[in-house]
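Exercise: predict the fold of this chain.
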Amino acid sequence: MIEQRRSRRFELKLPVELVRSGAVALGKTGETRNMSSSGVLFSADAHISIGEPIEYLITLPVPQGNSPEVRLRCMGKVIRQAEGSAAVTLERYEFVRA
Protein backbone atom coordinates (compact mmCIF):
# COMPACT_ATOMS: atom_id res chain seq x y z
CA MET A 1 0.00 0.00 0.00
CA ILE A 2 1.34 3.43 -0.96
CA GLU A 3 1.37 6.14 1.72
CA GLN A 4 -0.81 9.02 0.51
CA ARG A 5 -0.59 11.37 3.46
CA ARG A 6 0.92 14.76 2.76
CA SER A 7 2.05 15.42 6.32
CA ARG A 8 4.13 13.27 8.66
CA ARG A 9 2.19 11.87 11.61
CA PHE A 10 3.53 11.88 15.16
CA GLU A 11 2.35 9.34 17.72
CA LEU A 12 1.29 11.60 20.61
CA LYS A 13 -0.93 10.67 23.54
CA LEU A 14 -2.22 14.01 24.85
CA PRO A 15 -5.45 14.98 26.63
CA VAL A 16 -8.06 16.45 24.31
CA GLU A 17 -11.36 18.15 25.14
CA LEU A 18 -14.08 18.30 22.51
CA VAL A 19 -15.75 21.67 22.91
CA ARG A 20 -18.33 21.77 20.15
CA SER A 21 -19.36 20.13 16.90
CA GLY A 22 -21.27 22.52 14.67
CA ALA A 23 -23.74 24.26 16.98
CA VAL A 24 -23.80 21.44 19.56
CA ALA A 25 -21.78 21.81 22.78
CA LEU A 26 -19.98 18.54 23.55
CA GLY A 27 -17.93 18.84 26.74
CA LYS A 28 -16.35 15.42 26.17
CA THR A 29 -12.75 14.39 26.83
CA GLY A 30 -10.42 11.92 25.17
CA GLU A 31 -6.84 11.40 24.08
CA THR A 32 -4.96 12.06 20.86
CA ARG A 33 -3.53 9.02 19.10
CA ASN A 34 -1.52 10.83 16.47
CA MET A 35 -1.16 14.31 15.03
CA SER A 36 0.17 15.99 11.92
CA SER A 37 0.29 19.57 10.70
CA SER A 38 -3.05 18.99 8.96
CA GLY A 39 -5.05 16.84 11.35
CA VAL A 40 -5.54 14.82 14.52
CA LEU A 41 -6.77 11.31 15.27
CA PHE A 42 -8.20 10.99 18.77
CA SER A 43 -10.20 8.61 20.89
CA ALA A 44 -13.30 10.00 22.57
CA ASP A 45 -16.73 8.81 23.56
CA ALA A 46 -18.72 11.37 21.59
CA HIS A 47 -21.03 11.19 18.61
CA ILE A 48 -19.83 13.67 16.02
CA SER A 49 -21.04 13.95 12.46
CA ILE A 50 -18.76 13.70 9.43
CA GLY A 51 -18.41 17.03 7.66
CA GLU A 52 -19.31 19.09 10.75
CA PRO A 53 -17.00 21.83 11.99
CA ILE A 54 -15.43 21.00 15.34
CA GLU A 55 -13.62 22.91 18.08
CA TYR A 56 -11.23 21.03 20.37
CA LEU A 57 -8.53 21.77 22.95
CA ILE A 58 -5.29 19.79 23.23
CA THR A 59 -3.33 20.08 26.48
CA LEU A 60 0.40 20.25 25.76
CA PRO A 61 3.04 18.82 28.10
CA VAL A 62 4.92 21.42 30.12
CA PRO A 63 8.38 21.15 31.68
CA GLN A 64 8.65 20.43 35.41
CA GLY A 65 8.29 23.48 37.61
CA ASN A 66 5.86 26.31 37.84
CA SER A 67 5.07 26.60 34.14
CA PRO A 68 1.40 27.32 33.46
CA GLU A 69 -0.60 24.80 31.47
CA VAL A 70 -0.63 25.48 27.72
CA ARG A 71 -3.47 24.36 25.51
CA LEU A 72 -3.92 24.42 21.78
CA ARG A 73 -7.40 25.63 20.76
CA CYS A 74 -8.13 24.08 17.38
CA MET A 75 -10.81 24.42 14.74
CA GLY A 76 -11.31 21.86 12.00
CA LYS A 77 -13.76 19.52 10.35
CA VAL A 78 -14.63 15.88 11.07
CA ILE A 79 -13.43 13.72 8.19
CA ARG A 80 -13.81 10.22 9.62
CA GLN A 81 -15.47 8.59 12.61
CA ALA A 82 -15.34 5.05 13.91
CA GLU A 83 -16.45 3.51 17.19
CA GLY A 84 -14.58 5.42 19.88
CA SER A 85 -12.35 7.50 17.59
CA ALA A 86 -12.46 10.36 15.10
CA ALA A 87 -10.16 11.98 12.56
CA VAL A 88 -10.42 15.74 12.25
CA THR A 89 -8.63 18.39 10.24
CA LEU A 90 -6.49 21.07 11.86
CA GLU A 91 -7.41 24.22 9.96
CA ARG A 92 -6.81 26.94 12.59
CA TYR A 93 -5.24 26.99 16.02
CA GLU A 94 -4.14 29.33 18.78
CA PHE A 95 -2.19 28.85 21.99
CA VAL A 96 -4.16 29.42 25.19
CA ARG A 97 -2.46 29.81 28.57
CA ALA A 98 -4.24 28.98 31.81
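Check your answer against the key: The chain has no helices and eight strands.
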